[in-house]
Amino acid sequence: MTPKVTITLEEPLAGAAAEEFGRRIYFATGDILDFRFVTRDDLVTAVDLTLAPTGHPETVTRKVKAILDNDVLAQLIRPPKVIWSSPTAVEISDGTFARLRERGEVFPAGEGQVSLGPAMLHLMDALDDVVRGIVIDELGGIEYRYPTLISARTMHRCGYLTSFPQYLMFAARLHSDLDVYQRFVDDTRAAGQLVPNVLDRCSDVDYCLPPTMCYHTFAQYADRELPPGLRTVTAKGKSFRHEQKYHRGLERLWDFTIRETVFFGSREQVLTRRRWFLDRILRLLEQLQLSGRCEVANDPFFGNTDVAVSSSSQRLLELKYEIRLEVGGGRDIAVGSFNFHERAFGTAFAITLPDGETPFTACTGFGLERLAYAVACQYGVEPDAWPDHVRAVLGPNG
Amino acid sequence: MLDIIRDFVRRHVGGHPVGDDEDLFATGYVNSLFAIQIVMFVERDLDIAVKGDDLDIGNFRSISAIHQFVQMRAPASA
User: Fold this and answer.
1) Domain ranges of chain A
2) A298 vs A68: CA distance, rounded Å
């Protein structure tokens, strides 16, 4: 039996606030199997929840209401401020993921995990080559490749552990002890599968899977003076966020690839470079005639007392711009973000500029699977079938 | 009114002198979270609702900007 519960909202929620609420509901508890908004006159008046048999309606209701009160209602929410809209509108039919699956270009490999075939790989690499070229050739960036594992100390130092606990993915390993190994092998053989509660046999977590690349960059320059002239660092790497039930095709993955670029400098220098790069990318989108928009956004801070203030100030001060591209079915996805951090990371990682000041920082990140998927939705994956303006940039001779 | 706003800002910038037209967020004395404290101050202490498009940093970037916004939105009798 699957228990159901309806939570009636004291005040109806309008569009942007309802979206903010919807993005968080599954993180309230794994006991929520499904949810549906009840609307009246475009306002959300209640939420219907379907629970797992283990879900207690009162406990689930308490958690969902806590998220509503703390993370949503306390925010100053208004409809997103749009700073750019594509001049072209591309006709997009829904169902691209299913079509790619049929032709063997994508293969769902697990929750939020998708394997990619040759045409999608080419598209991802071609898009990354263009972005990487702008960063290195036009912004003078230098490139690094980081290990996948990131230390828990770095994850703590950048504030991620306390800002985004819902996304954390840990890299655990068995406690280094012969008796532990032998008992583990014996118990696994006997169980015929991985034994339950395996974490009880593991050492403390000292490594995580990185949610993005810029924390590697800050750790690289931590506790020292930046090399003279160093202003822009770029890296591509696998990134991981536990998106609970929100994973969907290539639109929202637990396991994905980011091309990230970090800017260091004075406030003016960093803001100028962020704006220059944003304008450069918007021109690229216009050249590719991709349909979408760029708007002011906020990060999904979660579950602590600062959520509302952090999210609201991010939007008010336009600390984060997000590029969203259309993927059909009336949906769009964020493919890139341009973030200004003030001195938060310069201070947290004790980085200094040659003049002794703490640097301001900004970063830009592109989700390469999402970017490739949006192009696939709007123009397909066959270079021969692309219009000239797409083939000129992303084609084999682009 | 201007003095009330100046006093509020000065209490949050660690005693540094701040000109009425100075961009508070470019001074380096405050971080972005102060933007929300300003909005809360305008709503709670000055009793002026900040709604919809009024929630724009242009209205809160300097002492003068806050003052101008408050004058514009204050009830005529105030």
Assistant:
1) 4-73, 82-149+211-394, 171-201
2) 17
Cβ–Cβ of B36/A267 closer than 8 Å?
Answer: no
Looking up residue B43, the CATH number of its domain turns out to be 1.10.1200.10
- ipTM for this model: 0.80
B53 and A78 in contact by Cβ < 8 A?
Answer: yes
Residue-number span of the structural domain to which B62 is assigned: 2-73
> Is B56 contained in some domain?
yes
Question: Does B6 map to a domain?
Answer: yes
Contacts of A78 in chain B (CB under 8 A): 52-53, 55
- Residues of chain A contacting B, Cβ within 8 Å: 76, 78, 267, 309-310, 312-314, 316-319, 342-344
Give the amino acid at A286.
E
DSSP β-bridge partners for residue A113: A110
Cα A221 to chain centroid, rounded: 23
SS3 label, residue A361: strand
What does the pLDDT look like over B17-50, one tens digit per residue?
A: 899 999 998 887 888 888 888 998 998 899 998 8
Identify all chain A residues contacting B31, using CB atoms and an 8 Å cutoff. Answer: 342-344
pLDDT per residue over A105-135, tens digit each? 999 999 999 999 999 999 999 999 999 999 9
E strand or H helix at A18? helix A15-22
- Give the CATH fold of the A82-149+211-394 domain: BirA Bifunctional Protein; domain 2 (3.30.930)
